[in-house]
Amino acid sequence: MQETRTESTAVIAARSTDPPVETTEIEDLAAARGYDVAATVTQAGPEDPGTYLGRGKCEKLAAAVAETGASLVVADGDLTPSQHHGLRAELPDGTELFDRYRLVLAIFERGAGTRRARLQVELARLRYELPRIVESADEGMLNKRTEKGSPVYDVRDRIDRLEAKLDSLPDPAEEFRRRRREEGFDLVTIAGYTNAGKSTLLHRLADDLSVDEATDGEREGPNKDATASAADRLFETLETTTRRATVGGRPVLATDTVGFVSDLPHWLVSSFSETLSEAAAADAVVLVADASDPPEVFREKLEISLELLADQGVDREDVVTACNKTDLLPAGERERRLAIAAERAPEAVATSAREGTGLDRLRSVVGDRLPTEEARLGMPNCDEAMSIVSQAYDRTTVENVAYDGDRVTVVCRGPPTVIERLRARADAIDG
Ligand SMILES: Nc1nc2c(ncn2[C@@H]2O[C@H](COP(=O)(O)OP(=O)(O)OP(=O)(O)O)[C@@H](O)[C@H]2O)c(=O)[nH]1
Ligand SMILES: [Mg+2]
To answer: Where is GTP annotated to bind (predicted)?
Structure first.
């Protein structure tokens, strides 16, 4: 008898020409999407052009689905539309069938934080689904493909609308970055493989005061300084995945990104180029790597990640690797992962986002990579000078403030745009 179906239970189907059939990665991807993997059916042998797995294995797979009550089968391959149709027909009624790409889309669906990214994911999914809908359509349905209300017509129509909408939508990230630069904030992007711990790390790095808390809690009076109000204005345009953090004593905006996944087809990656290009605009990139992976997996993912970042235009010098989940490793293994990472990117720091360790070191190493300028500002000691000193304390690292008679001199280091503005203000009163 069939058990009740569980929304999030999946059975994996994997094949490869040569044994053994490797299933760790597809299982990890399914887990990253939040599915419980209840069973795995593998086949070593040639691919069946009609049903992906051979007949006997299809029966085994169907039995595993029925037995576990799974609602979904994930096939570790790129199924053609006709294989998708053929294999699905072998499964218990109502079983969903994902191939590797569809699973990746599901992961991206969950990771898409902005409206634009959500539209991009939907567009990629519909482009993926259209040939499969056509494949499973009967003749009657296909004859109606130009009629409103037919599945094929509706999907095509939605694709057209999404394309038009995406074309017309301004890129909020672009506008945000422009304003961020004007305000003198540095942008730190958190990138890395899916499930490495990026979101957990962002949460840890973020300043305690979230936007909501800042507006719900005690409001500061009208004297609230210029920096805070500038930050508030910026936050209005921020996506939920960007948080304010303090790194190397400087206020930065840290942005979470969609996780990398191995072996993505080109068409899929290009659908998200904008979402992924977030890293290129950053002043520093924290590359989060799962140090609890076996050393060779860790090394390979790290290399792929660095290549992907380079493809997006990220300078390797701007990358800091966070070897994360070190709480799961004995000390000797930790050193081994750090050595692997240090060979490939300029800086590597051991972290545990879960336990909150290594974060101070990470902040300081990232801070050292942010563009920094030093200034010595001499000006007459007046109200405006005090306001300049206060802004310097707020937005830069002040190394010294010296009062000498009726003059004040500030030595500070910080983001070039902020330094430039302070210098202009000081010059204006120094006549
Ligand atoms: N043991 C341990 N687990 C961690 C650590 N950091 C994150 N995790 C866990 O790893 C899983 C994935 O963490 P996320 O922060 O969601 O990973 P992510 O990189 O944002 O994943 P995607 O958004 O799917 O790309 C969660 O179950 C976390 O609790 C860590 O330092 N140690
Ligand atoms: Mg995440």
So the answer is: 192-199, 256-259, 324-327, 352-354
